[in-house]
Specification:
318 residues, alpha/beta, 9-stranded parallel beta sheet, 13 helices, globular
Length: 318
């Protein structure tokens, strides 16, 4: 008998938390791009479909970054048409990563209606990931956002290294706020605050969110993206929820890291997040048993067990 059939986790709501959280699933893009082996296109498509079947309604499908930089996702043109019907038939949002105008052209040609950019709060990571300064990267994003908004396409921007940088150390909060404000002023609909190397702690999270609010960036436009390098991802998520954040990025099975930041370990596992949210009485619309089965299925295809503690507990796999 599995644990959910025993009525666990016991639902005990905590005061001051949102009634519903939107999970922004990144496993099919952020997770698979960090794999050494290239996953077959048909397996990626099946992964996305299984994630949708589990109740996830925002699933980042792929990346239109040049294949030279992310060869694991070189099949974006082949993959997206295999899953795009989910947006029409099931109302699932399928955002795709676009690095520049060329990437936007490729995404729009296939009918993408949700795109994401990848910005940096630090100069070192901007140089490593984008081969530009922070300001040069913002200048590169401006026409991308302008064209996307003119076409009524939803634009998210990730901001990496919001809490710490492997080259620069602690990142000043005002530095993060400056980049966030520039992206919002550009016209982005949504920002995802990334703890790329997993060094954030709850007080840091709440202080950054408060500073962003002070500078005119509303909580409703913010999502959080935590890595579990030091075991802080769920604690940091709870701190963000207490502040009013209702969008949380997570990766099925805890897949992923960052190819340009070697100290970054896996993303917050979607199953671990759902377990906590269920216990708090927060609605996600996700069927935890189906999601766990999907992560077990994907782990078998990757040839290794899922790092998610919840997946291990519910599937009895070590």
């Amino acid at each position: 008998m599995s644990t959910p059939e025993l009525g666990l986790p016991m639902v005990v709501p905590a005061p001051g938390l949102p009634a519903r959280v939107r999970i922004y699933e990144v496993g099919a893009r952020d997770g698979l791009q960090n794999e050494k082996a290239t996953v077959p296109t048909e397996v990626k498509a099946e992964f996305v479909r299984r994630l949708a079947d589990s109740g996830l309604t925002t699933i980042e499908a792929t990346s239109f970054v040049h294949p030279k930089w992310v060869p694991q996702l070189a099949d974006a043109e082949q993959l997206f048409p295999l899953v795009s019907d989910l947006g029409r038939s099931s109302g699932v949002h399928l955002p795709v990563l676009v690095p520049n105008e060329r990437g936007l052209d490729r995404a729009l040609a296939l009918g993408a209606r949700h795109v994401a950019l990848f910005a940096s709060a630090t100069e070192s990571f901007a140089k490593a990931n984008l081969n530009r300064t922070v300001d040069e990267s913002l200048a590169m994003f401006e026409p991308v956002v302008s064209r996307a908004k003119a076409d009524k396409v939803h634009v998210r921007s990730y901001i990496s290294m919001c809490f710490g940088d492997p080259w620069e150390g602690p990142v000043p909060i005002h530095q993060v706020v400056r980049v966030c404000k520039a992206l919002m002023d550009m016209g982005c609909d949504e920002l995802s605050l990334g703890d790329t190397i997993g060094v954030a702690t709850p007080g840091h999270v709440q202080t950054l969110l408060a500073e962003l609010n002070e500078e005119g960036v509303p909580t409703s436009a913010l999502g959080v993206h935590f890595h579990d390098t030091y075991g802080q991802a769920l604690a940091n998520t709870l701190a963000a929820l207490q502040h009013g954040v209702t969008t949380v990025d997570a990766s099925a099975g805890g897949l992923g890291g960052c190819p340009y930041a070697k100290s970054a370990t896996g993303n917050l596992a979607t199953e671990d997040l759902v377990w906590m949210l269920q216990g708090l009485g927060i609605d996600t619309g996700v069927d935890l048993a189906r999601l766990t089965a999907t992560s077990v299925w994907m782990a078998e295809r990757l040839g290794r067990p899922s790092p998610s503690r919840t997946v291990k507990a519910l599937s009895h796999k070590e």
